[in-house]
Amino acid sequence: MKVRVKYSKTGPLKFISHLDVMRYFQKSIRRAGLDIAYSTGLSPHQIISFAAPMPLMLTSEAEYFDAEFVSLPSHDEFVRRLNDAGTPLMRVWDAAVLPEKTLNSMAAVTASSYRVTLTKRGVEEMGALWKEAFPAEVTALLSEPEIVVVKKTKKKEEPTDIRPMIHSMEMEEGALSMLLAAGSKVNLRPEQVLSELCRRLDCEYNRFHYDILRTETYMDGPDGEGFLPLIAAGQRDF
Questions:
Q1: What is the pLDDT of residues 145-174, one digit of tens each?
Q2: Which residues sit opposite 202 in a β-bridge?
């Protein structure tokens, strides 16, 4: 049985890498005594895959992984045992059994939502700009037919129109909310949007001015209409 698990990654865990997260859950699953399936061959390993790995310095309320299990306890028992085996800073919130032939979580991801606020240092150095200039610049940015930025990858740099990758964006109550394209095919990081906003406002982008929280990770809805949280692909009643 393949299970999709939703968890959060908060507080100082923003400083640990994706590889550390993978190791954490492999050990937590063993400590919880869950009957996870292993691959065959000379070096068996747990059958587990993660969706849209989080970069360093970001926290999240909605991270996901898929894992195969030979047998399962009830939904509530499954969640409880995983949480008892780990830290509250990496809390499991939900789980769902996936139907056969469901796309794995990494392949299914098409969008992520974020909430950006200022750190204490950010408030001290650019609080007035955030309150007064950013809301108008967000509106102006969304009104443009294209937004060409230089996107950097490990192999190259190239001009890219990021406007189709911004599904929505607004400033509300001192926070910037964004719904951006995500996944293995098309991916836009919130830092790239913030950097472009800063460039237009003639201020230097400083990563330590912002707290960036991923609030949900999405897949396409039925017939490609809208987005659904990744957990919606399965059934919670097990």
A1: 999 988 776 677 888 999 999 999 999 889
A2: none
Q: Where are the alpha helices (DSSP H) in 98-189?
A: 105-108, 120-132, 134-142
Contact (Cβ atoms closer than 8 angstroms) between residue 71 and residue 35: yes
Tell me how far apart the alpha carbons of residues 183 and 20 are, in angstroms, rounded to a whole number.
21
- CA distances 202 to 133, 142, 222, Å, are 11, 18, 42
199 three-class SS: helix
* Phi–psi pair at 186, nearest 5 degrees: -130, 130
For 83, list phi and psi in degrees, rounded to 5.
-70, -35
- This prediction has a pTM of 0.92
Of the candidates 5, 55, 57, 32, the one whose C-alpha atom is nearest the C-alpha of residue 206 is 57
Cβ contacts of 3 within 8 Å, gap of 6 or more: 66, 67, 68, 69, 72, 78, 95, 96, 97, 98, 234
Q: Indicate left, alpha or beta for 13 from its phi (over 0: left) and psi (-120 to 50: alpha).
A: alpha
